[in-house]
Amino acid sequence: MTLSTFARIRRDLHQIPEPGFAEFKTQRYLLDYLEQLPAERIQIKTWKTGILVKVAGLNPKKLIAWRADMDGLPITEETSYDFRSTHEGFMHACGHDMHMAIGLGILTHFVQNPIADDLLFVFQPAEEGPGGAKPLMESEEFREWRPDYIFALHIAPEYPVGHIATKPGILFANTSELMIDLVGKGGHAAFPHKANDMVVAASHLVTQLQSVISRNIDPLDSAVITIGKIEGGTRQNIIAERARLEGTIRTFSMDSMQRVKRRIEALVKGLEAGFECEAQIDYGCGYAQVYNDEKLTLAFMDWMREKQPDYTLVHCSEAMTGEDFGFLLGEIPGFMFWLGADTPYGLHHSKIEPDEEAIQVAIDVVTSYFSWLSNQKMQLVCSE
Ligand SMILES: CC(=O)N[C@@H](CCC[C@H](N)C(=O)O)C(=O)O
């Protein structure tokens, strides 16, 4: 089977995953592609390591945007691919290589087959952190081309190819990173009474943190605290003077987010007293919930059922994933959906191998949807 242009592009991008705001090779790759398209229909602007591309419509009344994220994750790849990451310790394990290839596919379609409205394609850096969407929205580059509507997708390992899942209202959670540094007193492993051991303190804290959700959040609400990384100590026979926990908090309301943070702060204060140490909390970056415009999403879901019988529309539940696309949806009507990519390993797993057939599904659905949307009276399909 021959590889489609956009699957090939995805494979090229897969080999060069880069951290947020350091997507230099990725940006260059995308620009090289864009610069070989007919220049008369497109305008290109760069913003940091991101790119904005406007595709001219034939009789524009509105500006409809599509957003794709660009960054990779600090994961050592363990796929069976022969096009594995060439960047040691980095991997596109969240599908952003797929997202960018799909973005280019949709864009290319509309360069060749313009519709009435102008389209904006946003290749956005740093979704995994520290978050590119918010500073992008504040940038002059974006403000000059501020779209009327904005849309995006995320690959979903658990759905078969050809499935599209979404819902009106909240789709993804509010997030906050969570970093806790502990400083005690180091010493010889044989004399624990002369030291304050931060490996023991950190271990207690990890366990205590897990009680916050179960004991302080209404069981009918949902929240998550995950500690994804612990660092501490220097050697097996030295008591650790320092330890650091790194994690994330997820909630469906800002009230719960505040409550979780207050409880974490109380537990950390208790830890300081109990383990005679100093602790510092840093909440890093936080993202707004992804809230899909209700009317637009319902209209899309009806359109999918009626006009895309070859694909399966799933009305899904909300998830505890986070996305800085939430900031864009906070100000601009639109929605996000899950794109089935059928792989046994989940997002952020070193063995994830999304099915590349999903790329063409997304290009087909989004190009048809944008063509349809461009012909609608927007007040009919968009919430106030
Ligand atoms: C879709 C996805 O996986 N997004 C990330 C967003 C991360 C936000 C931030 N770095 C945090 O960990 O809170 C996710 O982990 O859900």
UniProtKB/TrEMBL annotation:
<feature type="active site" description="Proton acceptor">
    <location>
        <position position="128"/>
    </location>
</feature>
<protein>
    <recommendedName>
        <fullName>N-acetyldiaminopimelate deacetylase</fullName>
        <ecNumber>3.5.1.47</ecNumber>
    </recommendedName>
</protein>
<dbReference type="InterPro" id="IPR036264">
    <property type="entry name" value="Bact_exopeptidase_dim_dom"/>
</dbReference>
<comment type="pathway">
    <text>Amino-acid biosynthesis; L-lysine biosynthesis via DAP pathway; LL-2,6-diaminopimelate from (S)-tetrahydrodipicolinate (acetylase route): step 3/3.</text>
</comment>
<keyword id="KW-0457">Lysine biosynthesis</keyword>
<dbReference type="Pfam" id="PF07687">
    <property type="entry name" value="M20_dimer"/>
</dbReference>
<keyword id="KW-0028">Amino-acid biosynthesis</keyword>
<comment type="function">
    <text>Catalyzes the conversion of N-acetyl-diaminopimelate to diaminopimelate and acetate.</text>
</comment>
<dbReference type="InterPro" id="IPR017439">
    <property type="entry name" value="Amidohydrolase"/>
</dbReference>
<dbReference type="Pfam" id="PF01546">
    <property type="entry name" value="Peptidase_M20"/>
</dbReference>
<dbReference type="InterPro" id="IPR002933">
    <property type="entry name" value="Peptidase_M20"/>
</dbReference>
<dbReference type="InterPro" id="IPR011650">
    <property type="entry name" value="Peptidase_M20_dimer"/>
</dbReference>
<dbReference type="InterPro" id="IPR023905">
    <property type="entry name" value="AcetylDAP_deacetylase"/>
</dbReference>
<comment type="similarity">
    <text>Belongs to the peptidase M20A family. N-acetyldiaminopimelate deacetylase subfamily.</text>
</comment>
<keyword id="KW-0220">Diaminopimelate biosynthesis</keyword>
<keyword id="KW-0378">Hydrolase</keyword>
<feature type="domain" description="Peptidase M20 dimerisation">
    <location>
        <begin position="180"/>
        <end position="269"/>
    </location>
</feature>
<feature type="active site">
    <location>
        <position position="69"/>
    </location>
</feature>
